[in-house]
């Protein structure tokens, strides 16, 4: 019987040498005349073990990692094909604690299946949600999503069902589903991993959204920095179209839905939904004032659902298993699971899907294993470049939208970036202002001018020039940006700055200029 060996084609694995491993494996298999098929899967999300090679055995899949091309021959000598012992052997993949302790709902198939095999997708529970949806009334689908408690995973945490209801009820001969796959937040990669590792789940989620709201056309808006995700999505869309999952008659029903991928040049602000719409229409990525909401007047002035990749990819399992199944996970008003992306100076970086409610300390210390440098953790930035820096004193904060907001933080797209005690928080605050200045769309003054002034003030504090006065000025500037900006880029840049000032005041009191010069 042909043995299956899995070697990821995920961009993170490729960056760590997966292509060289696959080439070496193919050559060795041919030279040894082995009956082996190489499957290029997605990533399991354990970045420190990539490239992670797996072999299918009667006992389940056995993992080896991190594998280099030069390890391939010795691994085959050691009996890799039958799961043989070797120093790189990690045992059964599903038993690796980082994976075993997760609740994989949205990422259930990622790394498990062949991303471009629709048969494999079906064999692992795929299309069951869509099969149910084609037989349901649109309002019933919307009600199911609403009852599941699903909130947008792109950053704002807005209830997905309510957004869909608005589009369903909006009048319009054409409606659109736009998937926000811009994924600009620092330390985030969940959208990319799904698009590369399980693209059909996003297609299925978008088709369900189309049926639920009366939209017949969808766009996945992503960035040019994601070439592997773009290729995987485009191939998967063609396969889905050929199989009747997309097109004029979804799964043989009276519903039509088709979709395509559009690539932006890669600007952080183009992840903001109205700026994204402008970019998608071929215009400059300038933020639009709201109202009108995109749900009323979105793409080409038509009612439009804009949802993050993970929001849409979570819908198939909700339809398949029911709202109550999904809602039973989580805490408070944060229902279901969230793919936490652990990055920065951390030992075990990767993607960890879990029900809401883990504390930040559990995520950083236990799951992440502390810093990669072995030094103490100083700060953790949660929620991308607009997220607050949390010190160890706030590590008891549970991963929950409201709990983070209560401590002047945000979950955002669930990216966490870990810093050790060598981090200079004044420099991080300056970086937040600089990032905003570079990425600002320029439409409103507090953000366009304020961010540049913010960099200057941070530099003055660093130089020891009137530090007290300049700290006050920085706080005042943050207040103006927070309340005077048109969108969250200018409005949330104060979060990393103010949190750095509040929790790490010592970094904002450098030695006076004269002393420093002596
Ligand atoms: C500056 C800025 C950048 C954003 N970038 C993204 C992004 O990359 N991906 C995303 O899904 N949402 C992003 N958002 C949030 C979107 O505006 C919007 O809330 C989201 O796409 C809605 O989808 P959801 O309800 O499924 O989260 C960004 C918002 C701002 C203000
Ligand atoms: S806050 Fe910044 S990015 Fe947002 S509209 Fe104003 S200038 Fe543009």
Automatic annotation (TrEMBL):
Domain NADH-ubiquinone oxidoreductase 51kDa subunit iron-sulphur binding: 426-471
Molecular functions (GO terms): 4 iron, 4 sulfur cluster binding; FMN binding; metal ion binding; NADH dehydrogenase (ubiquinone) activity
Domain of life: Bacteria
Needed co-factor(s): [4Fe-4S] cluster; FMN
CDD domains linked to this entry: TRX_Fd_FDH_beta
Coiled-coil segments: none
UniProt keywords, alphabetically: 4Fe-4S, Iron, Iron-sulfur, Metal-binding
Annotated function: NDH-1 shuttles electrons from NADH, via FMN and iron-sulfur (Fe-S) centers, to quinones in the respiratory chain. The immediate electron acceptor for the enzyme in this species is believed to be ubiquinone. Couples the redox reaction to proton translocation (for every two electrons transferred, four hydrogen ions are translocated across the cytoplasmic membrane), and thus conserves the redox energy in a proton gradient.
Sequence similarity: Belongs to the complex I 51 kDa subunit family.
Name of this protein: Formate dehydrogenase
Species lineage: Bacteria, Pseudomonadati, Pseudomonadota, Alphaproteobacteria, Hyphomicrobiales
